[in-house]
Amino acid sequence: MRRHVIIGGYGSDRISDPMGTEEIITSLDLGADKKLLDHGIGSAIEHMKRLNIYPSEIGLDRFVLAAHVYAADTRISRATESQDSWTLEIRLVVPVSDPSRWAAVSNIIIRMLDFLTCDRWSINFRPRPSSFTAIIPEPLKEHSSPPFDSLSLFSGGLDSLIGAVDILETGLGSPLFISHSADGATSNAQSTCFEALKKYYAGRAFERLRVWMNFPDDFVHDVMSEKTTRGRSFLFFAIGIFAGTGLHHSFVLRVPENGLISLNVPLDPLRLGALSTRTTHPFYMARWNDLISALGIPGRVENPYWNKTKGEMVTNCANRSLLLKLIPEALSCSSPTKGRWQGRGIEHCGYCLPCIIRRAAIFAALGQGADPTTYTLSDLTARVLNSRSSEGQQIRSFQFAIDGSGSIPHLQKSLSINPGLFPMSPLRISMRWPASIGGGWMKLHGCLQV
């Protein structure tokens, strides 16, 4: 196991390691020119300027911190750099506009990150160099208030598409959709879905803030990249909050995600607790609101679908005919490039966890044969799937869960209110969930008879 530290700086602004000598140090250069910072941050500032949005310096600090987290999360291999192939030890040194303000909330941030990624984080804040004290451009004298009154994350997946359609169908307000891309497949799905919405709702005033952020594979010297993205939502949320601080009024950042994925009910003993994804878990989102409040930012994050399964989201979409046309364009698959080994293009594999939930949701909402999505594994029931291979592992987990919850009636409620260990919190936390979430995975049963 090796401990890693990522130290942020601006151009010639450099500091030596302020602590121990046993850490592997990596420098994150945020850019020598404050007119356009690197790693997609400067481009986001310019894009928001064109949209008449001028965020706060604290909002920018939030974005910069998230860039450090994203770099560490995706560019330090857990297989080679951790003692147990699971838990990294990471320290960040982040230049911010107000170090004392950020130091006061560091415990909240560490608690969030420890829970989100299952790593061990520590964070130090230091002042930005004097030439970067103010980075956000001053608005023009004739600057008027931004035209947007709501924010919603737009990932290019099915849930975020439903969230966007539901907002636009209300006919009220001017939403700003927030996208983050790090690969071509995700970016293409986001753009295709958004352009389709622009065409259909041509009379509505809405836009999208798109941020491209990725780091080279050799960002951390002599260390392999990490293929998982446990901490991606930390960046995604931060971009939304960054934009929200530029609205100059209280705001809600909508995070459209079905309750089954958010709660991440364990399927089998190997998935006990929220260990596969915690990106929109209610415990994690609550810490986000703690942080936003402590920083004095007039906003909050909210998942409007926290008590809905994905199938219920499809069923209750405010414009189902439009959704049916766009379903093939929304990208849910965790690895949409897997089909290239079979000479296929970007498409849903059909057997990863997100694909299985997607297929079950569309089946439950629209019926047999109504799913217009192309899946590499087109039929889950055509043959017995090998549980020792990737195509059979997730389906077996769901079957295990369905069988177990049926034979032990109280298991559904138990798992939904106590999904595992929570760092720095009691082992059991009190949450009340509708019965539909506790038994939501039973609704998958229709397409899992293999």
Task: Name its key features.
450 residues, four-stranded parallel β-sheet
Protein model, in words:
- The protein has 450 residues and is an alpha/beta fold.
- It has a domain of 116 residues.
- It has 16 helices and nine strands.
- Strands 7-6-5-8-9 form a five-stranded parallel beta sheet, with helices on both faces. Strands 2-1-3-4 form a four-stranded parallel beta sheet.
- Helix 7 links the parallel strand 6 and strand 7.
- The radius of gyration is 22 Å and the shape is globular.
Task: Tell me the number of strands.
Answer: 9
Report the structural category.
Answer: alpha/beta
Helix content: 25-40%
- What's the gyration radius in Å? 22 Å
* Largest sheet data: 5 strands, parallel
End-to-end Cα distance, whole Å, is 41 Å
Which band does the percent of strand residues land in? 5-15%
Helix-strand topology string? EEHHHEHHEEHEHEHEHHEHHHHHH
Number of helices: 16
Strand order of the largest sheet: 7-6-5-8-9
Average pLDDT over all residues? 85
Residue stretches low in confidence (pLDDT < 50, at least 5 long) are 420-450
Shape: globular
Question: In short, what is this structure?
Answer:
By secondary structure, the chain is an alpha/beta fold. It is 37% helix and 12% strand.
